[in-house]
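Progress note, project year one: complex with 4'-deoxy-4'-aminopyridoxal-5'-phosphate.
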Amino acid sequence: MLYWDYAAASPPYEEVVQTMEQIMKLHYANPSSLHRPGAEADRLITRSREVCAAALGVQPQEILFTSGATESNNLAVKGAALQYRSRGRHIVTTEIEHPSVYESCLQLKSLGWEVTFVAPGSTGVVDPEQVAAAVRRDTVLVSVMHVNNETGAVQPLREIGSRIKAANRRTLFHVDGVQGYGKLNTQIKEWQADLYSLSPHKVRGPRGVGILYVKEGVTLFPLLTGGSQEQGVRAGTENVAAVVASAKAIRMSGERREAFNLQILPLRNRLLEFVSGIPEFTVNSSRDGAPHIVHFSYPAVNGEVMARKLEELGMTVSTRSACSSRLAEPSRVLLSMGRNSAEALGGVRISLGDSHTEADVAALEQALLTAVQALNIVERGTR
Ligand code: PMP
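Model obtained:
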């Protein structure tokens, strides 16, 4: 079986697994405890914060550890909205955000906030002018992702950041960086981002831990209360082993970014060209997109049918993002790009990782051809 779902979860580095095991065995003390083992566990967290900060080019006190990027995104959006509610109750985001941002905005809307959802163009990229035009005096937050998790479309964050700040310098800018880190350059300062979310398990780290960068001077309304951990913004006993292993994965994947691109880009380009040559497919990714995602629609059948057929043929792919793949509804992201409902139901996402080779891509291409042939016959038979 060949695994093509790195954008959903990636296999942890061997060093990550070893670190997890070692820390769980040796440093099980609670970092809040005042005794020496507790202080040692706390020191490990401090060190991990420094490692993550160095990888992101920010200060250690600007890094918070959470339970995952879903929590980081919830905390960024709702924590900022609640904290700065006296400044205004308007938020700007896009129609293509991950559900953890999108639904946080919908929840705030149900509580009386106004939300402007900016639509992308047909390539899945949002126009910085449109984002800036939506910013008002009472806009507290703008949230735009770095790389879309379905199509791999890369958003022009530098332009968006500078236009937001020109429109209203008090408006905070949040970036969901989950699918960009380790693949593209992360430029928190150049983007003028105040908040940035990261998920270690997308870059060969452990699951169940997330990172949120909070710019010095920005405060958030805590969503979890009951302890003074993480500067009182995120209560709960830290997962020391996962935090230390995350820092390792963030450092390693950051250092390997260029090598990763060199290896993966030719494979991505080959695959993109291949799927573009299949007349039955509508391709939803482009060469300008992130190096690890190829997404296409096969409108003849539901994406799930295609994914199951490919699995029978030894290829594990995804229909869209793992977080929404159990929904039978058309993809909100594809609809917002102007795809029709058959296309939005027939999405298939292939995501590459550093284990892949030319031979793997050749095998996947063969499987795609076989699947289309088989499904075309079934389709014709049922009409
Ligand atoms: N944002 C994006 C863009 C994602 O792809 C994901 C993972 N599907 C998340 C947020 C949520 O991350 P986590 O799995 O760490 O909660």
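The domain at 14-254 is CATH 3.40.640.10 (Aspartate Aminotransferase; domain 2).
The pocket of 4'-deoxy-4'-aminopyridoxal-5'-phosphate is lined by residues 68-70, 73, 98, 100, 145, 149, 176, 178-179, 199, 210, 321-323 (CB under 6 Å).
No further modelling is planned for this target in the current period.
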